[in-house]
Design a protein that fits this description.
mainly alpha, 4 helices, globular
Length: 132
Amino acid sequence: MTYHRRVSVQVEEPGRAFREAWIAGVRKRYPGEPKPGYVAPWEATPEWERVSAATVYEQVRQFIEVAEGATAKLTREQKGRFVALCCTAQIFRHFPNPKPSYVADWSEMPEWQQETDSDIFEHIEQALISMR
């Protein structure tokens, strides 16, 4: 990825793009049959989750852009940790006392979720590359 100057790339529906990347990751990595809420289509996603998805997508996009592509050098785990931390902040934003499993630290998250979060970051990264 070459960045000669900072160019802001916008996705028409960042929340939907995030949600689609999440669903793809869950379908690929979840052991067994995922919970219906994990793979619910965008139209059936609660409003707080739509807002959160759009916010996290934008945080990842901005992170990639201000790093001028240097995020390509991050490990998959580092990329996934960034997504997970942004998601955790959104849970706290919308719920004063969330279930501990909703705000678990990276090391306490199931592997399928860690891998899905890494996939999401890489999906956004690839989308930015293809839009340049």
